[in-house]
Amino acid sequence: MAISNPYTAPQAEVADVDNAHQGAFQEMRIWGWRGRLGRLRFLAYGAVAYLIYMVLTVVVTIPATMLRASGGPGLLAVLFSLMMIPYFVFSALVLIRRSHDMGWSGWMSLLAIIPLVGLIWIFKAGSPGANAYGAPPPPNGTGVKVAAFGIFGVVILVGTLAAIALPAYQQYVQRAQAAKALQGK
Q1: Which positions, given as ranges, span the membrane (predicted)?
Q2: Distance, C-alpha 130 to centroid of its chain
Q3: pLDDT tens, 77-127?
Q4: Where is average pLDDT lowest: 61-70, 106-115, 128-137, 150-159?
Q5: Are 99 and 121 in contact (CB under 8 A)?
Q6: Is 183 buried (19+), middle (13-18) or exposed (0-12) by CB count in 10 A?
Q7: Cα(110)–Cα(106) distance, integer angstroms
């Protein structure tokens, strides 16, 4: 009969805690502060939210301006304030989940208010694998890539064109005013 040593290590297979999350991804929820959000999805969600906010602003501005012209007191300011609330709440939720992806507490997202410090949330990579806030976010699909790169590409294109066109237009206006002054003499 073999005598077993009671002080030897157990021989049973034990699954590691991290193995439970390997190969698993988090479910993506639009409204929520729990979980993680990758860099590209962070940019895409922010860009789409801003685009929706701008479209709603234009859609609300036209009738509100007409009402204000007819004597509606301060309706435009009230509507803008009401539209900003969900936009800022959504932006804060996305920023908190992005902080979680980097392994930081959601309270660290308050640092994004400081100018240029907010760029950390765009350029710093998330934690590889699972962290204290859950499994990693799923891989980015085509819609996320189009939203992130497409919207920011359009913004960069429009900004570049404006940077070229505005000075040219100002020079045109100056030349037109000079020509008008010469004709008037």
Answers
A1: 42-62, 74-95, 107-126, 146-169
A2: 22
A3: 777 778 889 999 999 999 999 999 999 998 999 999 898 998 888 899 888
A4: 61-70
A5: yes
A6: exposed
A7: 8
Cα–Cα distance between 160 and 121 in angstroms, integer? 25
Tokens of 185: 């003499």
- What is the identity of the amino acid at 153? G
Can you give 78-132 as a three-state secondary structure string? HHHHHHHHHHHHHHHHHHHHHHHHCCCCHHHHHHHHCCCHHHHHHHCCCCCCCEC
Quote the mean pLDDT of the chain.
82
The separation between CA 2 and the C-alpha centre of its own chain, rounded to angstroms, equals 65
pLDDT at 94: 93
Find tokens 């999805």 and name the residue: 41
CB neighbour list of residue 22: distance below 8 Å, 6 or more residues apart? 129, 130
Phi-psi region of 114 (alpha: psi -120 to 50; beta: other; left: phi over 0): beta
As a whole number, mean pLDDT of residues 21-29 equals 69
pTM equals 0.68
Any idea where the domains of the chain sit in the sequence? 28-139
- Distance, CA of 145 to CA of 131 (rounded, Å): 24
